[in-house]
Amino acid sequence: MPAYVHHFDSGPNLAAPPLLLLHGTGGNERSLLPLGRGLSPGSALLSPRGQVDENSALRFFRRHAEGILDLEDLAARAREMADFVATAATRYHFDPARLVAVGFSNGANLAAAMLLLRPESLAAAVLLRPMMGLDPSPAPDLAGKRVLILSGALDPIVPPADPARLEAVFRAAGAEVERHSFNTGHGFTQADIAAAQRFLRPAVYN
Ligand code: MLT
Known about the structure:
The chain has five helices and eleven strands.
């Protein structure tokens, strides 16, 4: 198994989709556990820790500067995370075909890259404050995949045009995309949580 420090919590409800929690810059494998539990109380939670150390702040991939992502590193680490998830599914006995990524900021960017480069690794993704990252050509086939993009209209980190650009990339690949912008900044709020709960509802209760 690739060397990701991680937390795994087998949820009490096998019918609920397993969640892959991907934290933001400066977080760790525990940061999004309360969010994951709040979104889907019964789900198994797999929460890895980013391996890139940026001045003691952990991330999932490198960046050249704030807002300037290292796309080559992003692509390599997205593939690595897809491999990790496949191994973890065998080890922890969750269904990888139902895995939903919930990523915040840096973790949202990684989740988007995973869907674009290794579509089989995720069924859906909840992207909280993502930036525009990869735009692979040819586009992958993301038919049947669901993506939720949640952005902040006052976000000082994500360029204002990025959420719509990312939506266009996913739509061009055939994914079903829902996008909302809230009147807030980079941090996520109760409105994000409510939107994510609505988005997950069909997967949680079916
Ligand atoms: C990034 O990946 O660099 C983010 O979108 C911004 C951050 O993590 O602070």
